[in-house]
Each structure stands twice: as structure tokens, then as C-alpha cells.
Amino acid sequence: MELADRAVGFLLSITSLSIFTYYTFWVIILPFVDSDNFIHNYFLPQEYAILIPVCAGVALLCLLCIFIGLVLLKSKKKKA
Amino acid sequence: MKHVLKLFSLLVVISALWIGLLQASIIPRSHTWLLPIYFIVSLGCYGLLMVGVGLMRFPTCPREALLLQKDIAEAKDFLKQKGVDVGSD
């Protein structure tokens, strides 16, 4: 079973590192590159660099609130 | 309460630094506006990385697991002899 654990941990770290490098490139390095370079084909337009984290954060908050609401409802039903 | 105060003071310091950066305009304007979001994303990434690394280095102690199983079997036998119901086997 520790092999499965190790594989999941490895996958998580690789995902986090790739997200970090992609985002760093996107936000910090890309504005300094000329706009007709080939590298721009691999990156979405700059507005998405703000939209995607904000949307993800809002979705996370919504999920948290829904979860808390469900747990509260269930506990109230059990008491009544 | 003290931990919340520490976090709050840290937040105030960081926002003061950010506003100072905005005023001094050492870095180009567009970069300064994107800095808070960048830091939040990198903090999330760091948390994920720590979870992944912790998972990879988790110790399993196979010898202690074996000893524990033996202890459980011994305790079950003892209790069964004394007449206690030890449940499913």
C-alpha cells in the first residue's frame, strides 16, 4: 500500500510544481517577451491569468459553504 | 485569540508593503497589480507540495504492525476465554 501512497504523493508534488512554473511564466516573464514570439501560442491571453484563480477560489468557497450547510442540516434533522 | 492577532498583523504588513510598492513604482504597474493573486496561488501550490512530499515520506513501520496484530490476537483469545463477546473474526 505504501507504493500507492508514494505514487499519489509524487503526482501531487509534480502537479503543484507544474502549476507553479506555468503561472510564474504567465504572470511574470511573459509581459517582458515581444508579442510576436512563438511562446505566446502556448499561453492563454493574460486576462485568464486573473480569471481562473478567482473563479477557482469562488468555487472553493461555495463548496465549503454548501458542505457546512449540509452538515448543519443533517445534525438538526437528527436532533428533531 | 493570539494566533488570529498574529495572522492579522501579518496581513496588515503585507498590504502595507503592497501599497508602498504601488506608490513607489519600482516594478512596472501591471506586475504590481497581479502580485497578491500570484502570492495566493503560490501559497496554495506550496501547501499542495508539502502534502505531496509528506505522503511520499510517510513511514509505515512493518515490524510494529506485526507485533500489533499479535497483541490483538492475544487479547482476543484472553477475552474469549473470560466469556466476553469479541465480535466478528
TrEMBL record, chain A:
Enumerate the subcellular locations listed in this protein's record, separating them with semicolons.
Endoplasmic reticulum membrane
One annotated GO biological process: GPI anchor biosynthetic process
Q: Which residues form a coiled coil?
A: none
Membrane topology designation: Multi-pass membrane protein
Tagged with keyword RNA-binding? no
Give the pathway annotation. Protein modification; protein glycosylation
Q: Which GO terms describe its cellular component?
A: dolichol-phosphate-mannose synthase complex; endoplasmic reticulum membrane
Q: State if Zinc-finger is listed as a keyword.
A: no
Membrane-traversing stretches = 7-29, 49-73
Spell out the InterPro entries in the cross-references: DPM2
**What assembly does the database describe for this protein?**
Component of the dolichol-phosphate mannose (DPM) synthase complex.
Query: What protein family does this chain belong to?
Result: Belongs to the DPM2 family.
- Main function: Regulatory subunit of the dolichol-phosphate mannose (DPM) synthase complex; essential for the ER localization.
Record protein name field: Dolichol phosphate-mannose biosynthesis regulatory protein
From TrEMBL, chain B:
**Per the annotation, which location comes first and is thus the protein's main one?**
endoplasmic reticulum
Amino-acid biosynthesis as UniProt keyword:
no
Q: Which InterPro entries does the UniProt entry name for this protein?
A: DPM3
Extract the coiled-coil ranges from the record.
none
Provide the membrane topology annotation: Multi-pass membrane protein
One GO CC term, this protein: endoplasmic reticulum membrane
Q: Where are the transmembrane segments?
A: 34-56
Q: In which pathway does it act?
A: Protein modification; protein glycosylation
Function of this protein? Stabilizer subunit of the dolichol-phosphate mannose (DPM) synthase complex; tethers catalytic subunit to the ER.
Oligomer and partners = Component of the dolichol-phosphate mannose (DPM) synthase complex.
**By what name is this protein known?**
Dolichol-phosphate mannosyltransferase subunit 3
Q: Which species is the source of this protein?
A: Gossypium arboreum (Tree cotton)
